[in-house]
């Protein structure tokens, strides 16, 4: 009897870790992979939004950073990781 309850406890712990993996860890890894793919596909003239909510157009790319034009004659340098999303010009024109 004691032998079976030990296997039951072990099976319960394994099941909890499996649920934790499929509900939390795996989706986070997939989101991170999509973000890294988006960052690696950035190019000059893309319209982007930073994590701080600033809209701009990429004018220059460097190794770990990029320069955004946020207004006429205003350029700001950001780390690539600060880019939250790439926006399309069609979506901006609808607003």
CATH architecture of the largest domain: Roll
β content, as a range?
Answer: 25-35%
* Rounded mean pLDDT score: 88
Tell me about the largest β-sheet: 5 strands, antiparallel
What is the structural class? alpha+beta
Number of helices: 2
Distance between the termini: 68 Å
The largest beta-sheet arranges its strands as: 4-3-2-1-5
Q: Which CATH top level class of the largest domain fits?
A: Mainly Beta
Can you characterise this structure?
The protein is an alpha+beta fold and 95 residues long. The chain folds into 2 domains: 41 residues; 53 residues, SH3 type barrels, CATH 2.30.30. The chain is 47% helix and 31% strand. The chain contains 2 helices and 5 strands, in the order αβββββα. The chain has a 5-stranded antiparallel beta sheet. The radius of gyration is 22 Å and the shape is rod-shaped. 5% of the residues are buried. The model has no long low-confidence stretch (mean pLDDT 88).
């Amino acid at each position: 009897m004691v032998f079976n309850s030990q296997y039951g406890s072990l099976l319960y712990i394994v099941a909890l870790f499996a649920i934790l993996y499929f509900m939390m860890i795996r989706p986070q890894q997939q989101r991170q992979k999509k973000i890294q793919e988006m960052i690696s596909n950035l190019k000059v003239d893309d319209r982007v939004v930073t994590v701080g909510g600033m809209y701009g157009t990429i004018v220059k790319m460097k190794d770990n950073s990029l320069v955004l034009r946020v207004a006429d004659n205003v350029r700001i340098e950001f780390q690539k990781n600060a880019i939250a999303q790439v926006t399309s010009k069609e979506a901006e024109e609808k607003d």
